[in-house]
Amino acid sequence: MHSDGKPIAMMTAYDYPTAVACERAGVDMVLVGDSLAMVALGHQDTSQVTMDEMMHHSRAVARGTRSAFLVSDLPFGAYHADIGDSVRNAVRMVKEGRAEAVKLEGGRHFVSRVDAIVNSGIPVVGHIGLTPQTAVSLGGFRVQGKSVAAAQHLVDDALALQTAGCFAMVLEAMPSLVAETITRLVSVPTIGIGAGSRTSGQVLVMSDMMGIFDRFTPKFCRRFAELAPQMDAALVQYKTDVRARQFPEEGLHTYAMPAAAEDRWREHVLSAYGLDLDRVAEPAAQVHQQQHQRSSV
Asked: What's the distance, Cα to Cα, between the start and end of the chain in Å?
């Protein structure tokens, strides 16, 4: 696709249903992003998710992925200590998490990790610009590369990652012109998120673009759906129908015994327990009140 100049559609998935949805839509690449820390696990930032949690979600996504290329994030701490840990965790993500490639954040400071992981036989996707795992050190969730010096820093990072062996890289939250420059300088695909339309492809967080995540919506995200209000309305309707005994509907959402067996069962219950199933059951609170009155007498 990159060679043909065809834009690559990448989307995050965090479980089997979202993976199947991506597969049905024909998404080209699926990313099990560490953003699941926030949108799926409720943490305040992405640095809280663990290696075991990432592998758990990666396995679930792998079960629903057939044709899309599966990339899983290495979480914060999984590749920061030393090269040995980096390779071991990358191997675990492929072997146990069933990922086909791993993604890690950072530029020139992490080329030794990238090189070691690639040489172990595992494809690596780089990630530069806004790197959420270390956003605090960048001054928060802010656009990167706005000055000439900062833009040059990003270009140097991209070239270094390519030399280290990254087969693709995510460019996050940077001026479109800087992302276009990087895309034209490197020979590998660039996947933009908040980096303009001139990258080799795009990625979004599914919970953001579906209108499910409720804390905030990044400027670069278009909401392609507003599912949260629909989910809220459906749950309210469910609660209402349950309390009105309109769900489940007899015969439509229920199972029945054969007629002869049902008649025998009613007779058995009446004989064994004195319970007449043909009579409408009294509310539990009313039964409790009657029992209390009898015990008081």
From this structure: 84
3-state helix, strand, coil in the chain (%, to 5): 45, 10, 40
* pLDDT tens over the chain, length 297 residues: 999 999 999 999 999 999 999 999 999 999 999 999 999 999 988 989 999 999 999 999 999 999 999 999 999 999 998 999 999 999 999 999 999 999 999 999 999 999 999 999 999 999 999 997 765 555 556 899 999 999 999 999 999 999 999 999 999 999 999 999 999 999 999 999 999 999 999 999 999 999 998 777 777 888 999 999 999 999 999 999 999 999 999 999 999 999 999 999 999 999 999 999 998 877 766 555 655 565 565
3-state SS of 222-239? CCCCCHHHHHHHHHHHHH
- Say which residue the tokens 């990790």 belong to: 113
Q: Taking Cα atoms as reference points, which of 176, 220, 180 lies closest to residue 196?
A: 176
Q: How far apart are the C-alpha atoms of 235 and 258, rounded to whole Å?
A: 33
- Pick the catalytic residue: 172, 180, 250, 282? 172
In a 3-state reduction of DSSP, which class is residue 1?
Answer: coil
Beta-strand pair 8-12/124-129: unpaired
| Three-state secondary structure readout of 6-74 | CCEEEEECCCHHHHHHHHHHCCCEEEECCCHHHHCCCCCCHHHCCHHHHHHHHHHHHHHCCCCEEEEEC
* Active site (annotated) includes residue 172: yes
Cα separations in angstroms, 255 against 200, 252, 258, 265, 270: 53, 8, 10, 15, 21
Q: Answer yes or no: are the C-beta atoms of 102 and 93 closer than 8 Å.
A: yes
